[in-house]
Amino acid sequence: MPLTLYHSKGSSALAALILLEEVGATYTVVDVPIATGAHRGPAFLALSPKGRVPVLACPEGVLTENPAILEYIAATHPAAACLPAGAFAQAQARALCAYLCATVHVAFAHARRGARWARDPAALEDMRRMAPAGLQKCAHNLEEMLPPGGWALGAQYSFCDPYLFLMDHWLGALDVPIAEFPKLAAHARAMRARPATQAALTRDQAG
Amino acid sequence: MPLTLYHSKGSSALAALILLEEVGATYTVVDVPIATGAHRGPAFLALSPKGRVPVLACPEGVLTENPAILEYIAATHPAAACLPAGAFAQAQARALCAYLCATVHVAFAHARRGARWARDPAALEDMRRMAPAGLQKCAHNLEEMLPPGGWALGAQYSFCDPYLFLMDHWLGALDVPIAEFPKLAAHARAMRARPATQAALTRDQAG
Q: In this predicted model, what pLDDT tens digit does every residue of A39-52 receive, in sequence order?
C-alpha cells in the first residue's frame, strides 16, 4: 500500500515531497489548496481535525506534523540512509526538527497567520512588521548551530535537510536575502542541485 | 556518566524531570532560574545559545528541545518501556510531541512571552487576552485526538505523558478549568498519582 501525501502548493508540505522523492518512495499526492480553503473543508477535516498540511496517509493510519512525517519516511526507507544511527544522533536530529517547527516556522507564521494569536488589526500589523527580524534571528541561530559538513546534521544528508531547506522559502517570502547567511545559502544551493529536490519543486508548483 | 538537567522552576523542564524520575535515571539538576535572568547569562548561553530550558547534558553532548530530550531519555532507558515499538507508533508519539511544542506551548507562550513576536504594548495585551481561547482550542483538539486508554498514546504510559501533563500547568496558569476537558483532567489525575510525578513536582518547586 503506497503512501499518500496531502499537500498544498508553497506550504511546508514541500519538505515531505522532497524526502519522498529522495528515498524513492511509492506515493501519490492529493492537493489540498489552502488558497481555496480546502484545508477547512469537511473531507480534509475528517482526515485531520487540525486542518493543516502536510498529512501523510500510511498503511497503518494517518500521520500529521512535519517532524513525525519526515522521520517516518526515513525510518521506513532504510536503503536511502536518511536516518542517522544511534540514540544521541537521532535526538540531535529531532532537536533541530523541533526548533524548525516550534520556533522558526512559528516566527514565519506571524507574518501570514497572526490571526491564530491576535485579533486587533494593529496587533496583526505589528506582528507582520516584526516577523522578518524574528526570522533573521532564527537564521543567525541556525548559522551558529549547524555543524560543519554542509548538511543539516553534518557530512551526511538526512531527513532534516528537506525541512531545513524550507528556510530558503521562508526567508524569500519575507524578502530577507539568504545570502546574509552563508551556511543556509550553501545548503539551499546543495539542495537545489539534487534531482529529488528539482522533481519535488516541479510537483509543488503544479499543485 | 550521569545526565544533567538544566531546569527552571515552573517551566516546561518539568516534563523531563518527571521522565528522569519515571525511568530511574542517574541524574543531577542544575537550576537556571528564568525569574533572575540566569537563562540569559554567559554561562548558560555558552551551553545553549538558544537560552531556553530544558537542556540535557548527556555523555555524548548537549541536547535541547523537549521532544528530543524526552525521547532520548526513553530510548536510553529501555527497561522502563517508555518508548513505543515500531516506526508508525513512534511517529504518532512524535506527532503528539510536535503538536505540544509547536502549537500548544506556543499558544500558551502568547500569554507570557508575546515580546518574541510583537513590540506594541496594545498588541501584547491583545495576545494575552486571546491566549486562553487559543489554549482552550488546543485542549479541545487534544480531547478529540487522544486515544482511549487513559495515557497519551493509549493504554501504555510513554515519554509523551510527562509532556502532555504540562497541559495541567498551562491551563491552570491561564485560569482555564481543566475539568472542562475530561480526558485531560483524568490524565492529570493519573499522572499526579504516580510517585515519579510527585517526586518531580517536589524537586521542581524546590528549584
A: 989 999 999 989 99
Q: Whole-prediction pTM value?
A: 0.97
Angstrom CA distances, B134 to A120, B114, B130, stand at: 15, 14, 6
DSSP assignment, residue A147? P
Nearest Cα of chain B lies from the Cα of A159 at a distance, in angstroms, of 13
Query: Do the interacting molecules here have an ipTM over 0.95?
Result: yes
* Nearest CA-CA distance, residue B82 and chain A, Å: 14
> Which residues of chain A are within 8 Å of residue B82 when distances are taken between CB atoms?
none
Helix (H, G, I), strand (E, B) or coil at A16: helix
pLDDT at B1 over 70: no
Q: Transcribe chain B into DSSP letters.
A: --EEEEE-TTSTTHHHHHHHHHHT--EEEEE--GGGTGGGSHHHHHH-TT--S-EEEETTEEEESHHHHHHHHHHT-GGG--S-SSHHHHHHHHHHHHHIIIIIHHHHHHHH-GGGT---HHHHHHHHHHHHHHHHHHHHHHHHHSPTTSBTTBSS--THHHHHHHHHHHHHHTT--GGGSHHHHHHHHHHHTSHHHHHHHHHHHH-
